[in-house]
Amino acid sequence: RSHTTHRRPAAWMSLGSRPAGGRHATVRVAAVREMGRYDATNAARTTFRFPAAWPYQPSDFDRLDDNNDATFYAAPRLVTHIDDRAIAALTAHYATLLRAGDDVLDVCSSWISHLPPDTELGRVCGIGMNAEELAVNKRLRGDFLVRDLNTEPELPFAENSFDKVFNVVSVDYLTQPRAVFEETYRVLRPGGVAVMSFSNRCFPTKAIQRWLQTDTLGRVELVANYFYFSGPWREILALDIAPKQFPPKDPLDLTAWTDLLTPRDPMFVV
After folding, report:
1. 3-class DSSP state for residue 23?
2. Strand pairing of 268-269 and 235-240?
3. Count of H helices and E strands in the chain?
4. What single DSSP character describes residue 83?
5. Closest CA to 267 of 104, 80, 121
6. What is the largest CA-CA distance in the chain?
């Protein structure tokens, strides 16, 4: 498959001003912080510095618990793995990317996909590890398959099948990320977008060693390398999208101060 430069899929997200729905919709959000960029058409805009060859060893993808993942994920976990503000920020970003009728693949999916509820999409398909979780995901409407991408990294779809591919807080568990990202590129349509989001939470026994042994910037670099070495992506953009809060207008508003000082989950996308 060939792509002209302007039609290559891009791995990126950009922040819009649209507020997310729900109880945190009134949070004021500052401009996101760009953490790194690669632009295949403009070297002057590129800040990532990629190595000449794939920089990782097989041991980087070892895990503390290397037993069958199907056993670990056998019991359904109908819980969220990031806090409400991080979810709202991610949903708001999705809203800036998605267009009516887009076909979406939700990789490492679960019982909720965090897609904006007011966007009428085409096909929304999920790949995950637990059938019970996937079955209650209303956005999938029964279009899902159970698949362990660590043993079968192939995505069972034809080329050019989807407009968007999303992975929410699960990129740290991939033991064959290069293969999964190559497949992601293959199933995306020209001009499509892939988004990998992550926070600072994980199941440490299932996360790869390289993830556990580095910091936030190292994780951003890791995911950016996955993209860079998996296909001719037009653009790779890493952003900090966590909502930025500001002191309350009323200095005596103790509720607002308490909310401000409550620790929040970070949220990053590449």
Report:
1. coil
2. antiparallel
3. 7, 8
4. -
5. 80
6. 61
pLDDT value at position 203? 84
List of the chain residues with pLDDT < 50? 1-7, 12-30
Both structure tokens of 7: 């039609």
Residue 72 is predicted with a pLDDT of: 86
Structure tokens at 98: 């998605």
Q: Do the Cβ atoms of 37 and 48 come closer than 8 Å?
A: yes
Mean pLDDT of the chain: 85
Query: Quick one: residue 126, left, alpha or beta (phi over 0 = left, psi -120 to 50 = alpha)?
Result: beta
pLDDT at 164: 98
Secondary structure of 230-261 in HEC code, one letter for each residue: CCCCCEEEEEECCCCCCCCCCCCCHHHHHHHH
Rg (CA), the chain: 18
Q: What pLDDT is recorded for position 10? A: 57
| Residue length of the chain | 270
Task: Say how far apart CA 245 and CA 192 lie, in whole Å.
Answer: 32
CA atoms within 13 A on the CB side of 161: 17
Residue 79 per-residue DSSP state: S
Q: What is the pLDDT of residues 161-213, one digit of tens each?
A: 999 999 999 999 999 999 999 999 999 999 999 999 999 878 899 999 999 99
